[in-house]
UniProtKB/TrEMBL annotation:
Residues 1-28 form the signal peptide. This is Tat pathway signal sequence domain protein. Keywords: Signal. The keyword Signal applies. Belongs to the bacterial solute-binding protein 1 family. InterPro entries: Bact_solute-bd_prot1, TAT_signal.
């Protein structure tokens, strides 16, 4: 993530909450024809709708990206804030229009009509009435707007809430079709938008038409991984490359656990480790047949291993009890291995860890195959889960004006525009301290980095001012594991399904039993029984049949 997000807890909290839901198809439950209108993205149709990718080298990172395959790219690293703030937009993008904009905000909402908003309007050439809303209740706030058909001109709709918002149903009815303005080479009119990876635009496409503008996009998006206390393990002669299988991890559990000393090897690791057993994230295709993860023996093998890990006494008792304060246990050295989302690896974590222990250093094991023999693989998520949309009632010239504004907002990390968008006016909202934009008192009150970038932003980078070790470690880990990223079945296809299937897809009763199993409270057979019930009376078989008939057979796998 960029410097502006590392100083806040938004992504580590929100993305972790979204968890694996963001890694599968973006499901939008629907009961009527409106949602069905959006349909499912297909291959050739989507290719014609997506903007072209045009790279830009105006600002060069200290640690360049490394490609891992189609749509896979590590995040570039910056060891300092660029000193030469290059301007990437000529003149003022807007033409004096007046628009309303709503974004979620996990933090203190700034005063209305403050000096930062006024300065931004002057820079953008429009009157953009920013109305940040409480992120904790955003899903209900937006749903009220859509029900009344009173959306603002520009709105942020995080993809993890697509089922709540029925985004697929809003596409083409309340949300503007951007395909005529951005498809193919048309995006070149907006150079900063053209730098956004093509894969990121897929997350905002519905029924082979483009609706969403990506924010914080990346070619390296996974749900999370298995972290470890690098300082502690390396002091004991244990390095990440020594862990190559599930057996190695189990052996570490025995070696590192000392209950009498209040130290356990593991916190919760299921969420980010179960796929190493060959379990699909959600779906796989076997000889042309669609198979749900619950139908695979690999899934139950993963459960068996995690159940044994818990019952062997290698998992912290509080984690087994469902206590979510795992990060605190990790800082204190009470647990040494823990699963978490990638948003956990940042400057704030480094600072908090060092406050607890001056030697603190987060590390992550390389992606492994549980058997130690198969090729390691981790499923990719969509290149972004944060997208904004324009109102369908806007006139074409208004859409073009707001796309020009989006082009300004999407300027690359460290540029003049990026600095303005994220930090405000130098001398008023920030000053440079040790080469880093540092907020003034006015900046702390008025500038929220979760505001304008939620409408449009440049691709994500890794930057941790004063914490270069974090940037070097994270970018090195991504480079070492970039070849293991692979697209899961139905990757970024934005499937709109009937409500009954959406409910079955959540499979809450099964997931509750799974949780009890990997915490050692129930047995693997209990999960098998829960799955059998889900398939017959919980709608599981109907879900699988619906996905096979309406998605796989008609549109393929999306891979």
């Amino acid at each position: 993530m960029g410097i502006e997000l590392n100083r806040r807890t938004f992504l580590s909290a929100a993305v972790s909450a979204a968890g694996l839901a963001a890694m599968g198809p973006l499901l939008s439950g629907c009961g009527g024809s409106a949602a069905q209108r959006a349909g499912v993205n297909s291959g050739t149709g989507l290719d014609a709708a997506l903007p072209a990718y045009v790279p830009n080298t105006a600002i060069r990172p200290d640690i360049p990206s490394v490609a891992g395959g189609p749509d896979v790219l590590t995040k570039p690293g910056f060891l300092g804030y660029p000193a030469d703030r290059v301007a990437t937009v000529s003149g003022v993008p807007g033409k004096g229009g007046r628009y309303s904009a709503v974004t979620p905000l996990w933090g203190t909402i700034p005063p209305a009509d403050n000096s930062f908003y006024r300065a931004m309007n002057s820079a953008l050439g429009v009157e953009l009435d920013m109305k940040p809303a409480d992120g904790n209740t955003y899903n209900t706030i937006v749903s009220t707007m859509t029900a009344a058909k009173k959306l603002p001109d520009w709105i942020q709709l995080p993809a993890w809430w697509n089922p709540n918002f029925n985004t697929g149903g809003l596409a083409g009815s309340q949300l503007a079709d951007l395909t005529p303005f951005l498809a193919g080479d048309k995006v070149e009119k907006y150079p900063n938008l053209a730098v956004i990876p093509t894969a990121a635009w897929r997350a905002g496409a519905w029924g082979d038409k483009l609706y969403g503008i990506p924010c914080f996009s990346s070619g390296f998006e996974i749900a999370g991984t298995t972290f470890y206390r690098r300082d502690v393990l390396e002091a004991r002669g244990i390095t990440a490359d020594q862990v190559k299988s599930a057996d190695d991890l189990m052996d570490l559990g025995k070696e590192l656990t000392d209950a009498k000393a209040g130290v356990w090897a593991f916190d919760d690791v299921w969420t980010y480790l179960f796929t190493t057993f060959g379990t699909p994230l959600k779906w796989k295709v076997d000889n042309g047949k669609l198979v749900h993860k619950y139908e695979t023996e690999e899934f139950f093998a993963a459960l068996d291993w995690h159940h044994r890990l818990a019952t062997a006494g290698y998992v912290h008792p509080d984690a087994l009890a469902g206590d979510s304060a795992g990060t605190t246990r990790f800082y204190a050295g009470k647990v040494l291995i823990a699963g978490n989302g990638m948003g956990a690896w940042n400057l704030a974590d480094h600072q908090s860890g060092r406050a607890a222990n001056p030697n603190y250093r987060r590390g992550a094991f390389n992606v492994i195959a549980a058997d130690g023999k198969s090729g390691p693989r981790v499923d990719m998520g969509p290149s972004t889960s944060v997208l904004s949309y324009l109102n369908a009632s806007l006139k074409p010239e208004q859409v073009e004006e707001l796309l020009a504004v989006a082009n300004y907002l999407a300027a690359p990390f460290g540029s003049a525009e990026y600095t303005m968008v994220n930090f405000g006016v130098e001398g008023t909202h920030f000053t440079m301290a040790d080469g880093v934009p540092t907020p003034t008192e006015a900046g702390k009150k008025e500038v929220q980095a979760q505001t304008y970038p939620f409408l449009a932003s440049s691709p994500a980078v890794v930057s941790n001012p004063t914490g270069d070790v974090v940037t070097r470690d994270l970018t090195a880990w991504q480079s070492a594991n970039v070849q293991t990223l692979a697209k899961p079945v139905f990757w970024s296809m934005n499937v709109s399904m009937p409500q009954a299937q959406a409910t079955a897809e959540a499979a809450q009763a099964v997931e509750d039993t799974v949780k009890d199993c990997y915490r050692g409270k129930k047995k693997v057979q209990d999960v098998r029984d829960a799955v059998a019930t889900w398939k017959t009376s919980g709608g599981g078989d109907r879900l699988i049949a619906w996905m096979d008939e309406n998605v796989l057979q008609k549109h393929g796998t999306g891979q």
